[in-house]
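Re: duplicated header lines in exported structure tokens

Our pipeline writes sequence and tokens for each protein into one text file. With two proteins the header for the second block appears twice in some exports. Here is an export where it did not happen, for reference. First protein block:
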Amino acid sequence: MRKSLVIFDVDGTLTRTLRVDADCFTRAFTKEFGISGINTDWGSYDNYTDSGIASQIFREKLGHSPTPEENARLVDRFIALLQEEAAAEPEFFQEVPGAAALLERLREERDWRPALATGCWLPSALFKLEKAGISGEKIPLASADDSPIREEIVRLAIARSRRLYQTDRFERVVYVGDGVWDVKMSSELEIAFIGVADEEKRKLLRAAGAAHFLTDFRDYSSFLRELSRATVPGK
């Protein structure tokens, strides 16, 4: 029997790291390259991924895309800042309640298989998951190291999932995210979407076309029900 696939974002979905991530990201540019005055309206960038945003900032501020050496320096500085924050303020790296237990249970689920698709660079995604107590072991993962384009990241996560879970296709694919860009991406790929959001953020996601929401992952039965009910945004 073919399985179904549920794909998770990381920041703001599995981990409560949006604020510390944004702070360390902008400070990495300043400390490593002297770049300041960065636009933090991330949704306004051409590609809302770490690699996409970084490339656009370099072009706008320095007039060129980052070289591989510059990109490595930026990522290293970013990770170092995250490590400093995690040591000083570990509460900034908490899981969304129930996330770790949810992924563990999904590994044993008969009909569903988990995957991760994040706009983060891979080292930062793995670091934040680790600090939040979430194991990504043996879960297919695609990141901003693979592509600056969110749709391509999700396509790659699906392809890696097909190989790992040994299926030619999935009966159903659901993406779980927290941003308007996640809603738009799910609509573009015609996959179902569940938003992880409080009441205020739900207004933004609804306006983008989302119709199914969770506050967190503490109620496993409710999560499974939403997986079965979730629809493609705008459909």
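Second protein block, exported in the same file:
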Amino acid sequence: MFAELSPDDKAKYVAAKRAVNFVEDGMKLGLGTGSTAAWMVRCLAERVHKEGLRIKGVPTSSRTANLARELGLEVITLDEAGRLDITIDGTDEFDANLNLIKGGGGALLQEKIVASASDKMIVIADFGKRVTYLGQFPLPIEVLPMAKSYVARELTKLGGQPQLRDFKTDNGNLILDVHELKIIDPIEMETKINQIVGVVTNGLFAVRPANILLLATNEGVKTIKKGA
């Protein structure tokens, strides 16, 4: 199977296998959403079946929940789990301080809730996701449907160009993708956007950045720790 993968999928697979090595018997995990996270769920299921690990997973989307169940993983709610040991997820963009933009797959609200409920957040990325300043990837904003036009006008005042995505989240909300934001201070921007009435949350993970980032490169997987 590995030989048949594209170079991008090979990198995601190798990094995902490294990520699930952080998982220990008895842990409660946050399971991310997206193509990279899907590889992680597959690698996690492989470990569970081979080693008999007893783990419980809290998925960040219905897609992840369905995949996890199909692969035989035990899925529980965050209410049932309480505090989580780790969350493993991908990212759309990251900077040198491990601040992230997430939400390309539309699951940013649940991803942010699950990450905030976790003792540690482990993120998988390839080198192309690294940027000097966040904002090259359009920043997803989850908004209440009735507020989409108002929020879009407010976002233009911050220098961005919001576009409505043809998508409805698991929570029944809409997503505005904000282009051309140069985010110099991610924490300030995250806070400022969340103060707009009608915004549910945004895809900046700066108040709660990654603890560990596993960077897939041609030479293998590099481990980058927050503050290192």
